[in-house]
Design a protein that fits this description.
DNA-binding; WHD_NrtR (chains A, B); alpha+beta; Arc Repressor Mutant, subunit A; elongated; three-stranded antiparallel sheet; Nucleoside Triphosphate Pyrophosphohydrolase; NUDIX_hydrolase_dom (chains A, B); 232 residues; 2 domains; homodimer
DNA sequence: GCAAAAGTGTTTTCTATACACCCATGT
DNA sequence: ACATGGGTGTATAGAAAACACTTTTGC
């Protein structure tokens, strides 16, 4: 096999930005970096690509290692490659973001990483350019969520409309009119009303809904104009 | 300086997908690959990242080498990293797409690359996964152009509305109603009407317009819903 | 009975769409 | 005079936005 001559290879890492939502707060999962140097600083979960692994595969592996989860919504965000972004050694990082159901996440698996959930507005200083990456991920999520029903990936199988609305309000950091919200969400036909209620957050209780997965898939591309133009 | 141990570095390339528009046809610029092996096959213009170069910088350099152009619309598309995507040697490719004014492009500069413009529908077979990349770029351009005024980057300083409309029709591969198109485009306030006409494509002539650059910048984010829902 | 959250309709404005004819000019 | 492409207006339907009160129920 021929080789390209005189080219300097570099390390390629994949970093994962993992979002979760507990029904009230949008959160980010970060770890305490285990390897020297810069040990014990907060960091995104990442790793280097394996010899027989593609980028998506590496992202899935890294996500599985930290969360124990398969079949998660995962999307490539951007590649970062400043020569000095990682002071240890030149590393190009390909960044993914994941939206997970925080309830499926089990703490045991990740004890070795000292992982912790932070509210989005309280994310600590992270190593290297990781805070920039998180900001870019939020921008992309806002963009995507305005056009496609991706935020359902953050919810459990059964959820209430107030939970869903709060999620949208957190993502866009602005209040949404509740009547218009319900009208749009029901008009989308994506929700199936359940007969029982969640009584944990009010006396009256809020009906559970679940997602119509077929319609969700079918309408993924056409779920447009979801966010009110006047929001924020 | 410490190093990460036991990690295998790989080559990182940047490939550029270069689009142009001649007033009638949307086109792609590709080169005849100069280096063995797989010499003389059509390929995107690319190169490996330099030691002191970031990814955007590498993309700009590569674009400059081939087109002689600075200050071009350039956007990172995606990173590709299958272990066997380049059979010569493991290479992760970070792909950018560029939208250039084809009239600013001067043929001399790139004679050494045997560059050639192809109509988008007649792009030949390219090496590796380059055809997949081109398709992804077109998808992204359609997405972006529906929300943001990026297609102006393909036009010369002065252009006519029929040219602009044809461009949109090519990008979306579907006819657009001319009265509705003019209404929307003038409503956007982005165009400044000139007093003279382009007579090259009709006896009557079509007025030239130029872009209001300040408004273009200001409205970049809010230029929404440009493409008719019924197109195609 | 009251506090706290869930749920429900109507009106108005705006935007998108469909649609067909006259205009200007060079030959 | 005619062929060719450029340019113009209106009516209709659908979507978005603004807006406030009633319901339920545990305490």
């Amino acid at each position: 096999m021929g080789k390209y001559l005189n080219q300097k290879p570099v390390l390629v890492a994949v970093d994962c930005i993992i979002f979760g939502y507990d029904g009230d707060q949008l959160k980010l999962l970060v770890i305490k970096r285990a390897i020297e140097p810069i040990k014990d600083k907060w960091s995104l979960m990442g790793g280097f690509i394996g010899e027989n692994e593609d980028l998506d595969g590496a992202a899935k592996r890294i996500l599985l290692e930290l969360t124990g989860l398969h079949d998660v919504y995962l999307e490539q965000l951007h590649a970062y490659g400043s020569p000095d972004r990682d002071p240890i050694e030149r590393t190009v990082s390909v960044v993914y973001f994941a939206l997970i159901d925080i309830h499926k996440y089990s703490k045991q698996i990740n004890d070795q990483y000292h992982a912790e959930w932070f509210k989005l507005k309280e994310v600590p200083e992270l190593i290297f350019d990781h805070n920039v990456m998180v900001k870019a991920a939020m921008d992309k999520i806002r963009y995507q969520a305005a056009l496609h029903p991706i935020l359902f990936e953050l919810l459990p199988k059964r959820f209430t409309i107030p939970q869903l609305q709060t999620l949208y309000e957190q993502v866009y950091d602005s209040p949404i009119d509740n009547r218009n919200f319900i009208r749009k969400i029901t008009a989308s036909g994506l929700l199936i009303k359940q007969s029982d209620k969640d009584k944990s957050s009010s006396r009256r209780g809020a009906f559970y809904f679940k997602l119509d997965k077929n319609k969700h898939k079918a309408q993924f591309q056409s779920f447009l104009n979801f966010i009110p133009k006047t929001s924020k």
